[in-house]
## 1
Amino acid sequence: MKTMFHNLQNFYEYLEKLGPGKSIKLMQGLGYEKVTSLSVKIDKDRIIYLAKKLSETKILDLINNIPEKDMIEIMDYNSDEDLVYYIDHLQIQELKYIIAHIKPSEMALMAKELGKESCVRLLSDIGVEKSVGILTYAGVAEMVHLTKQIDINRLVILGQALTLPQCKKWIRKRGLSDLVPLVQSIGVENILTLIDSIGFSKSLELVELLGVDKMIELTHKIAKMKFPLRYSPKEMSPKSKKKTSEHKTI
């Protein structure tokens, strides 16, 4: 009897603060047992805040796709404002994938250190599966440390250009610390030009052979070099063309 009275009090408060239309739609969509269970396990004021900020469709999609245990754990570690931002800027299936692979405490760490906007940008612009793959392979704390040292725009460009296997290979061979001086001293565009020219594996081998400092020194020296003019095929003399043809035959 006491439990029923408490539930009626909660339902009355939902009706009062959310309005009868939204309250009834949510109760019909979730069912009496689900609403009662959430009301017991999650602070009622937090439920009301989230229900006010999110549409009925998003709330139903969220609760019907993400296990209750995970929802409670996420709310334990993350603020309501951060949760609303994540739900508004990520697809529910993307959010479900993130929750399945990254601990709520690690999500909270990312939001605290980088800001929720930067977190969502990294996840959505690089791609959720690739981003999560990098985060879980490198370690969330290590990636947070890296992101604080490299401009997020550069990191996104690099993350978009490389495949997940390439990222994992780099992390396995060189870790993350080398990226900071390379990106700051050479630039993302130049790094990608090198990779495009000789391939990812050869670029990695070059860094391993020379070391980061020598690699930076070499690229700066190359940038200062003056190269002879290259002749196009139209400008080549018949004699030169003949020699080129002979070389190709050989």
## 2
Amino acid sequence: MHGEKHSVVELRDIQTVLQELRNAVAAGEMIILVGEMTVEYDGRSFSWLGTGERVLLIKQDRSVIVHRPTGSEAVNWQPPGSHIDALEENSKLVIVSSRASPPEKLKITISRISHFHRLKLRDEAEFHMHAREEDMQQAILEEPGLIEEGFVIVEVERKVLDGFIDVLGRDRDGRLVVVEIKREKADTQDIDQVLRYSAQIEEEFGARPRQIVVAPLMTAKAAQKARMLGVEFRRLSPRRAQEILKKRKGLDRFLSGLI
């Protein structure tokens, strides 16, 4: 596209696909692979997904996404900059996406390939979405588990010296949690903000709270700073928040009809 390489590979044998995949990764191309696969993740947790037909995307920034035939959310994914290896193992194509920090590995074993597509895309447009942080906040109020299992909301829009904490809560161990919500990509200033609010809560309660930033994405510099300072990140997009609110509204209508 736009004069760049764009090809569909004929699936003669696994070695052909293996070489094409390695070449595409080295060239910084996007890969679209459709086939039958298992997926294993080992890192911050462990998960195993048995054999099924899925779509595998390896993007130009080496982010990896696995989609099932239904649903808008990826079943497994790895962030940009991951190291990608490809090999043949027991007559199957194996793709391993790994990171050193934090240490985690996504292993995709593909037993049958029905489609392999490599191409170079160009997209420099800015994304604009007219959604509100209030929608994201409301979605968290409706489903506190979006933060983590056992999360309990204590207060919303709590006033501190230089602003308002979007959500103040407690985790399952009773520790206070300061949650800062951003509808766009979180940056280093957002990390500084949640740390300032956290310091004021610590001064008030005498105990250091956890800090969590909720946003659709986080810049690389912000992610690095967050890791260094112990700030956690939860991915939530305005679109996903709106889906949760619509689903909840539909459930409320259904329940009201039963009364």
## 3
Amino acid sequence: MSRFLGLLGVTTLLSSLAVFTHAAGASAADCGYLFDDFSYSSAGDSSLTANGWTPRSYAGGPGVPGATWSPSSITFPTEGGQKVMQLTASTDGTGAGTNHAELYSTQKRYLEGTYASRVRFTDTPTAGNDGDHINQTFFTISPLNGDMDPTYSELDISEYLPNGGWGETGPINYQTSWYTYRAEPWFADNMHTEQRSSLNGWHDLVATVADGHIRYYIDGVLVGDHSGKYYPRQTMTINWNLWFIDTAAHTGGRSTYIQQVDWVLFAKNQALTPAEVTARTAGYRSAGATFADTVDTTGGCTPPTTPPTTPPTSPPTTPPSQGDCTSAPDWAFGTAYQGGQTVKHEKSRNGDPGGPPSGEGKHLWKARYWTQGSEPGWTQQWQDLGRC
């Protein structure tokens, strides 16, 4: 089967998954999905880029200064009868002799919903001495538009350090939700949770972004619940990378480490349970699909509703078609708002308040609960009361 399913193929596939969507209830409405099990031949496979992935080739951070980021560090071997995406990183203890690896989504289009990936972490190198401060990751991220950018959004769904780093001994695994940071001098504004045990082997990593909370799961177990200003405020890319924090713990010649990824799933505007994630990925595979993407073609989400058992005695109230913006202030991303407060604002086109407007005009918005830095129209913190 082709790695890329056309619209008709996706529709057929989703119909074949009815048994899973029915079990998931309202959360399984087809608001848009991305699924990929990485059945590619190499980093140069044209289907890889056609399906929206970019192997990193540009220099820079994070990690060891002077390190190389090469597409050749991304390969697609077969493990257990399934193709997997493999990241390989190696170091000889010098910047020039260090190689990092990263694969990321070409488009910045992911915000609220469910992010999931089956990832194999490794505690020891495939060659050379052990002990390096290696970081094995799955994360989402937006650009930082200047120091302390209040719209910056990053969710480190897992950063696994089998040998420690950043002053910690390993193994340790982090989930980190970012508000913003400054590179020089370093200042970080984030919230994190951690697990201090080995994660060697395969694990299902899930993060849901909904209702003002980021909830992180490992193998079905809730390990973190972050909220408040750390809730993402703009669309992000999906990424995996494998890199050395530093070379302080390196010994001997060259050491080589790997990280593998079996599949990735994104469910737009839906908070799936880990069990629902497992069911949906199994459904794609049983249908013979290696890739499906309806994130943009569906355009939104209308969860199914259960009709009332007794007809209403009066017609239901319809949402206002126009909001009274006379007394509402303009929304400001640096201002904290309490539940019930109203603002007027024209949402941005791409989820970046500093970017171009949507062209939809200003709307009146009401905060559902405390919020700061979350743009109306892009996050669930705000209820649309109609155009001004």
## 4
Amino acid sequence: MNNEKQWDLAEILHELDRNYHHLETFGVRSLGLFGSYARGTANTNSDMDFLVDLELPSFNHYMDLKFWLEDTFSHAIDLVLIDTLKARLQSVILSEVVYAKRLSPLPRGHLGGDQAH
């Protein structure tokens, strides 16, 4: 994937918030960023790691969302369904995930990280 633009955390979260209504069409309940982009350590070879909670998880919604993220950010995307997190990774991912304001799991869930964007 061609990484033409180097995105930062604030830009990614803003883009997700800006497209909130479109993301709802994929059944997105919450969508957050974790990994190197959330930590601010991404480089030109980094992929973007997203954690998603889908209202009705389906192959089509998952793939449509993944393709939309790849097209929007022009980056390779790792998209992880929250319900499929392995126990050994769950605490690490949930502690660093940063959600877009309009795509946060609150009030029912964990905000993650030290910040609510």
